Amino acid sequence: MAHAAEAGKRGRTRTGVSKAGGFSSDELLRAYREMLLIRRFEEKAGQLYGMGLIGGFCHLYIGQEAVVVGLQMALKEGDQVITSYRDHGHMLVTGMAPRGVMAELTGRAGGYSRGKGGSMHMFSKERNFFGGHGIVGAQASLGTGLAFSNRYRGNDNVCLTYFGEGASNQGQVYESFNLAALMKLPVVYVIENNRYGMGTSVERASASQDLSKNGAPWGIPGAQVDGMDVEAVKLAGEVAVAHCRAGNGPFLLEMKTYRYRGHSMSDPAKYRTREEVQKMRTERDCIDTVHARLTELGVTEPEIKQIDDAVKQIVQDAAEFAQTSPEPDPAELWTDVLVEG
Amino acid sequence: MRDATLVEAINAALARAMQEDERVLVLGEDVGKDGGVFRATDGLLARFGPARVFDTPVAEAAIAGMSVGLAAQGFCPVAEIQFMGFAYAAIDQLLNHAARLRTRTRGRLSCPMVLRTPCGAGVHAPEHHSESGEACFTNIPGLRVVVPSSPRRGYGLLLAAIRDSDPVVFLEPTRLYRAVREPVADDGTSLPLDRCITLREGGDVTLVGWGGVVPEMLAAAERLAAEGTQADVIDVATLVPLDAETILASVAGTGRCVICHEAPLTGGFGAEIAARLAGPGLFSLLAPVERVTGWDTIVPLSRLERHYLPGVERILAAARRSLRHG
Fold first, then answer.
1. Could you tell me the CATH number of the domain that includes residue B14?
2. N or C: more exposed end of chain A, with fewer CB within 10 A?
């Protein structure tokens, strides 16, 4: 708890590059590669949406990459992840294939839900990713159930349950907090506070502004973390996960982050100024920060460019696959409603 | 009189209702500053102020529950839920409280609230952004369920719903929001909440449905007319209470009925109409009742959506099957 508060405090007050307890250059390179993959993937998804190749909704994760990358670095095999509809980044860091994710966005047979689920509804049993959920805040209870299974089985796995600050006002989130605390379930609730629930700012939607204290009535420890700083995120994640693995019950992390793009692709953007977005992009960008840190540690531009090129290649390949994978057979409409045969 | 889309007509009806009765309040997620996810409440905050038009947190159960409390105090809350799939969280409050306040208090209290939500496919997103869950509400005694299918009917029915002293679930077909413009007189005239609307009289076959399929039924009727068959087209519009008389009277003349809706077949509200036809309408029937509906599956992503939606061709096929009998 003391550690987490410290990690949170460090994250909150820090600007620029981490000096203390920072990443090795290998860890920084991994974080850089994974954050960049999400960024480029999402930029491409935005382009494909603009070209009319993606139907329905598409909620981009651009700006928030440090949260999932840092937290995934604190997990081990067997830990579960569940999140809301802004889910592409979560899927990529759990190791799901960029091709399969992108092809699901375009509604093709090669997608993770074979073209039936789209951007918001993808799962990977193999990678312990349990969706992709469109009902705001509902996954908090599902994640609590996933965590119960860990306790029942007697393993020390943890379920990372993500939701946004907008969702944090839903009743079932608090029902879940109480249950998890009562039963000492190994669940880390992660509030990704990107400051806007659609067009409503957190100040206009939440009576409390320190969301890390939202579990306090049930004794759930929490920490506010600089979610734009991948090192601070990982450090806080490790403390939270260790707390859960040791059988101490749930932990709550509030990640202070920011989405650069609209809520979805159709967003009137009347609720904030261009300047506000621009300021975050230029002063706090998680990828720029790691880039600068890598340079400090002596990693050369050609080495970094190699990563950039490799990531670009992966995303290009995924985009091509997503446009050439066949459309689902109309017969798919009737499959997997109830068990067949 | 000006040309308006359905969403503009909804907006005009809200403004008219707020103008004429200060007890009318508008609440929901992003309804104020942003003007609603489909812009149905655009401009209301500026015109009527934050005390009467207010953004709520994302909390559908509380939005519905709070509306019941406001209604019990004589206000007329009009709550917006952004998509029908999010309204399921509000059903507990609607079923257990809104719909029962009048009965429980033996009429001493009523619940003049409206819960508006878009319904049906139309934004090419799967599942809860596209489904038609009207049957979840029609089986709750104490609620009115209304589905407009044109700008004029949207205006008149919403005004009636707001002025009504009982809770109304008002389902707005997403794909009709901006589909057509037609002249809408913003003169405060409402439509009855217990009448089907006959859109076309023909006498050979009855096409009956509501919401997003109504334009499809009208298009099918045009095609049938070109083949020499004249169809009655009935927009049910107010599902509860159901104006069965209008439907039965039409089928008494045609002997044939095709029921159309976007929701899945099994347990869909079309089954209720079919049951009425099998009861008091039985001896009018010259052919088996046809139902053209969504499939018993989950609304898929856009590439399969066109196979899901009941359209003109399926309605035509059903009408022709019906016409082959007798």
1. 3.40.50.970
2. C
- In chain A, the percentage of residues whose pLDDT exceeds 90 is 89
Judge: B301–A116 Cβ closer than 8 Å, yes or no.
yes
Range of the domain at B34: 2-184
Asked if the Cβ–Cβ distance from A200 to B55 is below 8 Å, we say: yes
**Residue B189 falls within a domain, yes or no?**
no
Give the residue with greater pLDDT, A269 vs A168: A168
pLDDT, one tens digit per residue, over A75-107 is 999 999 999 999 999 999 999 999 999 999 999
Q: Does B295 touch chain A (CB under 8 A)?
A: yes
> Chain A: nearest CA to B82, how far in angstroms?
11
Q: Are B153 and B175 within one domain?
A: yes
Considering only the beta carbons, identify the residue of A56, A170, A271 that sits closest to B125.
A56
B325 is catalytic: no
CB nearest B126 (choices: A118, A136, A330): A118
Of B184, B216, B247, which residue sits at a domain end? B184
Name which of A55, A171, A334 is nearest B302 (Cβ-Cβ): A55
Q: Where are the domains of chain A?
A: 22-197+208-321
Q: Which are the contacts of A274, defined by CB distance < 8 A and separation ≥ 6?
A: none
Quick one: B118 and B218 in the same domain? no
C-alpha to C-alpha distances, A61 to A57, A107, A134, A256, A274, nearest whole angstrom: 13, 19, 15, 14, 18
A167 touches chain B (CB under 8 A): yes
Of A136, A137, A271, the CB nearest to B33: A271
Question: Could you tell me if B131 and B202 lie in one domain?
Answer: no
Residue B135 included in any domain: yes
Instruction: Assess whether B203 and B179 both reside in one domain.
Output: no
Q: Are residues B155 and B209 in the same domain?
A: no
Whole-complex ipTM: 0.90
Q: In this structure, is residue B190 part of a structural domain?
A: no
Domain A22-197+208-321 has CATH 3.40.50.970: yes
Compute the nearest-CA separation of A231 from chain B (Å): 31
Residues B62, A171: C-beta atoms closer than 8 Å? yes
Contact (CB<8Å) B57/A327: no
- pTM score of the predicted model: 0.92
Of B130, B157, B184, the last residue of a domain is: B184
How many beta-carbon contacts under 8 Å exist across A and B? 109
B110 and B226 belong to one structural domain: no
Q: Do B61 and A200 touch (CB under 8 A)?
A: no
Residues of chain B with C-beta less than 8 angstroms from the C-beta of A200: 29-30, 33-34, 55, 57
pLDDT in tens, A218-249: 999 999 999 999 999 999 999 999 999 999 99
Task: Give yes or no for residue A6 having a pLDDT over 90.
Answer: no
**Residue B258 forms part of a structural domain:** yes
Strands A196-197 and A200-201 turn out to be antiparallel
Q: How confident is the model at residue B1 (pLDDT cuts 50, 70, 90)?
A: low
Q: According to the model, what pLDDT value does residue A19 have?
A: 42
* Domains of chain B: total: 2
